[in-house]
Amino acid sequence: NAERYKLPSVEEIEDELKQTPNLKIIKQRISDVFQVLGDFKNRRDPDRSRGDYISILTKDLCSYYGYNEYLIQKFMSIFPNGTELLEFLEANDQPRPVIIRSNSLKTRRAELARNLINRGMNVDPAAEWTKIGLIVYDSQVPVGATPEYLAGHYMLQGLSSFLPVMALAPRPEETILDVCSAPGGKSSHIAALMKNTGVLYANDANMQRCRAVIGNLHRLGVNNAVVSNLDGREFAKIMPQGFDRVLLDAPCSGTGVIWKDGSVKTRRDSQDVQRCHTLQRELILAALDSINANSKTGGYLVYSTCSVLVEENEAVVDYALRKRDCKLVPMGLDVGVQGFTKFREYRFHPSLCLTRRYYPHVHNIDGFFVAKFKKLSNSKSA
Length: 382
Hints:
Number of strands: 15
Low-confidence stretches: none
């Protein structure tokens, strides 16, 4: 007979929380409660409900990892498996590796790696799915100040930000819009794939951040770009059907990059997420309306976020499918786990299995989401 686990009372837990929490006790209790939930019939305390266990587990996860209850409950529903939930929470506290993207407008990865190794940097090709990324293990010189950096041979950027551009698959001579382009990593990557031809609109709603875009595009030798400082929702009015491809890396809650900003753990609440969700829905429709469905080479939108929340990802994509004449298409990337087609009370279009989620504990990159649309006609109704 499995050993039964005695759950402390709510009063005991509340008394405990008034004192400095003993992390060792909390960690042990988290692990015990997960074991009970895994074999509830045999291990439960007969006087306590599943709800009691989950409520204590939620409080313990909040105090151990430093989150508010809102986010812990969100993460518990995305990762119902206890082991995976803990792996995700642990990974959120670990910095991601330092990654650089070699700039094909000026150099090749192998040549760049050789030069950087000679300067005292320990680098390796980054991941099997990219031909241009390098991982930096350690360096005797500041990575953002080498002669190669200043000459624009590489950009410092997270691996996750390679994905939306790879999915977008820009072609030379196209007209392309990057709606939220600061600080310019993705835009400069797009320009390199366009081989500096065509026209790239690198837009950002924040003027300060536009300055970073301008600086980076100059340094990296991009000369097919126009930098604009507009609200992304304006493009449908200013340049309706003006683009072959659009990248919308939407503003979001940042729940995929908590290691960069720990304040997200306690600051983000349902109002924040609702605000993001509303803006994302407005931006995605404007992005679709600024694409020309009759483009000879394109007609594609890539939507991405650095959030793991369904409200900001699948729910926004599903909304766009209902509102416009478009469909989801494969992204041509082998990496990532499938997006949700159903989640709690949500029932999404079955094609949402073509979207991809990325997790720090699975792919060692930021939490991220990518979806690729093909616009079927310029009609404004689905």
